[in-house]
Design brief:
The protein is an all-alpha fold. It is 76% helix and 0% strand. The two termini are 29 Å apart.
Length: 309
C-alpha cells in the first residue's frame, strides 16, 4: 500500500513548484484582456487537452495514460474528480466577475486548514512541534482575513471544502498523475467546447469554430494551457507523495506569493491591514521551511550513520 511521507523531497519540490507557478498566473492572464474569465477557463481546458493528447501521442504513451478509462469501476471517481476540479476552476474565474473575489480568497485561506484537519482527524497524521507553530501563525492571518470580511459566503465554503475533497479522492483512487489530469480534462472538454462556441468571442458573441481567433491569441491560449497544466500536474504529484498535513501547510505558499506578485508586479496598493493577514502566514511559512530543513538534515545524518554501520 502506498504511503504519503511528510519529508518526501520530490513531493516538496513538486509542491513548491506548483505554488510558485500558480502565483504567476495573474500576470499572464493580464495579456488576455478583454476576454472573459469564462472564455479563458474553457480555452484552458481545450488547449490543455490538446497539449496532452499531442505530447503523449508523440512519445507513444497516450494509450497507457488513458487505460483507467477502460475500467468501469474507475468512472465514478473520474467523473467526481472532474466535477470537483471543474467547479474550482469555474469559481476561480466566476467570482472576480461577480464581486466575490474576497469570498474566493477567504476560501483559499481556509483550504490549508481544512487539509490539516482532514489529515489530523481522518487520516491519523501527526504534526511536529514546529508544524503546530506554523499552523497557529497561519491561522492568525486567516482569522484576521475573516474579521476583515465579517462573514463566510457560500463561495468560500465551496472552495474550502471542494479542493480538499478532490485531493482525498485522488489519494483513494490511485492513478498516475498524468492520467488523472488528462482524463479530467477530457470529461470537461464537451461543456468547454459548447461554452467557447456560444460565448467565446471578444464581446461574448458566438463563434463558428473554437479556433476562430487571431494567431497571437491562439499562441496566448497555448501559453495559458502550459501555465495551467504544469503547476496542476505538479500539485497532483505532490498530493501523491506528501501527507495531507504537510501539503496543507505548504499550500499557504500560494496566497503569500500571490500577495507578493500583486504588489510587486501588478502595482496593487498595499493596505495596512494586509500586513496583519499575510505577515503571520509568511512568518509561518518561514517556520515551516526551518522545520523542513531540520528534517532533511536529520534524514541525511541518519542515512550517513546507517551507511557506516
Amino acid at each position: 500500500m502506498k504511503t504519503h511521507q511528510s519529508g518526501d523531497y520530490k513531493g516538496l519540490g513538486f509542491g513548491v513548484s506548483a505554488f510558485i507557478l500558480f502565483s504567476f498566473m495573474p500576470i499572464y492572464v493580464q495579456q488576455l484582456k478583454p476576454l472573459s474569465g469564462y472564455t479563458l477557463l474553457n480555452q484552458r481546458i481545450l488547449w490543455s487537452t490538446l497539449l496532452l493528447l499531442v505530447g503523449l501521442s508523440l512519445i507513444k504513451k497516450l494509450s497507457f495514460y488513458l487505460r483507467p478509462m477502460r475500467q468501469l469501476k474507475a468512472w465514478p471517481g473520474l467523473i467526481a474528480g472532474s466535477l470537483l476540479v471543474g467547479l474550482q476552476w469555474g469559481l476561480f474565474v466566476w467570482a472576480p466577475l461577480n464581486q466575490h473575489t474576497l469570498d474566493l480568497s477567504l476560501g483559499y485561506f481556509l483550504v490549508p486548514l481544512v487539509m490539516v484537519f482532514i489529515g489530523k482527524v481522518f487520516l491519523g497524521e501527526k504534526l511536529r512541534p514546529l508544524q503546530w507553530v506554523a499552523m497557529f501563525c497561519a491561522s492568525a492571518g486567516v482569522l484576521m482575513a475573516f474579521w476583515k470580511a465579517s462573514d463566510l459566503s457560500w463561495v468560500a465554503i465551496l472552495v474550502a471544502v471542494g479542493y480538499p475533497l478532490y485531493l482525498v479522492l485522488r489519494r483513494k483512487q490511485v492513478l498516475p498523475t498524468v492520467s488523472a489530469f488528462l482524463i479530467e480534462n477530457l470529461i470537461l472538454l464537451p461543456p468547454a467546447l459548447i461554452g467557447i462556441l456560444m460565448f467565446g468571442g471578444l464581446e461574448g458573441e458566438s463563434l463558428s469554430h473554437p479556433f476562430a481567433y487571431s494567431s497571437s491569441l491562439v499562441l496566448l491560449f497555448l501559453g495559458l494551457a502550459i501555465m495551467g497544466s504544469v503547476p496542476m500536474l505538479c500539485f497532483i504529484a505532490a498530493n501523491n507523495r506528501l501527507n495531507m498535513i504537510t501539503l496543507g501547510l505548504l499550500s499557504y505558499l500560494e496566497p503569500a506569493l500571490i500577495f507578493v506578485v500583486a504588489y510587486v508586479f501588478l502595482g496593487e496598493t498595499l493596505k495596512a491591514d494586509d500586513l496583519f493577514i499575510y505577515g503571520p502566514i509568511i512568518f509561518g511559512l518561514g517556520i515551516l521551511a526551518i522545520d523542513g530543513g531540520r528534517q532533511i538534515i536529520r534524514k541525511k545524518h541518519t542515512a550517513k550513520n546507517s551507511y557506516h554501520l
